[in-house]
C-alpha cells in the first residue's frame, strides 16, 4: 500500500513540474503549483513567487 502512494506522489510531482515552461495564453492554462503563473511577456507557465517585501 505504501509503495503505491509513493508512486502516486511521484506522478503528481512530475505533472506539476511539467507545467513549468509550458506555453500559456492566460493564467487558466497554468493551474498546477509550483508553476501556476502565466508570464504575459513570455507566455510561459512560471513559478508563483511570493511578493518580495
TrEMBL record:
Tree of life domain: Eukaryota
Sorted UniProt keywords: Signal
Entry annotated with the keyword Signal: yes
Signal peptide range in chain numbering: 1-18
Protein name as catalogued: Carbohydrate-binding module family 18 protein
Organism from which the protein derives: Aspergillus luchuensis (strain CBS 106.47)
Amino acid at each position: 500500500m505504501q509503495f503505491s502512494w509513493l508512486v502516486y506522489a511521484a506522478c503528481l510531482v512530475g505533472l506539476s513540474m511539467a507545467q513549468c515552461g509550458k506555453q500559456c495564453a492566460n493564467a487558466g492554462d497554468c493551474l498546477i503549483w509550483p508553476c501556476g503563473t502565466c508570464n504575459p511577456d513570455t507566455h510561459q507557465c512560471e513559478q508563483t513567487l511570493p511578493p518580495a517585501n
